[in-house]
Structure prediction request, 91 residues.
Amino acid sequence: MAMNTIRNIQFTLLICINKQLHEFNFRQRNPDLYDTDTADERSNRYFFKMIKENQVWKIEGKDLPAWISSSESLIQQALTDQEKTLPQSSL
Prediction:
C-alpha cells in the first residue's frame, strides 16, 4: 500500500522594515499560497496571505497597517529568497 505524504512547510523570517526587525511566520498551503502572520511593536498580530500571481508574490488581506502593505516588495523578496532553499513540496 503506497502512502502519499504532504510536507508541512513552515518557517520564520526576520525582515527589516522602517529600521525595525519584524518576525514573519509563513505556512505553505500550496506552492502558490502561504498563510502569513506578523506582529507590531505593541504585539498586535496581523494575518494575511501571500499569493503568487504571474510568478510574483502579492499580499492579500484586509485591514492591514500601512507598514505591511507598503513593504510588499521587501516581504516578496525575502519569501522568494527563502523558497530557493526549501525542498520541493509534494503538494
About this structure: Residues 15-83 form one domain. The radius of gyration is 14 Å. The longest helix spans residues 72-83.
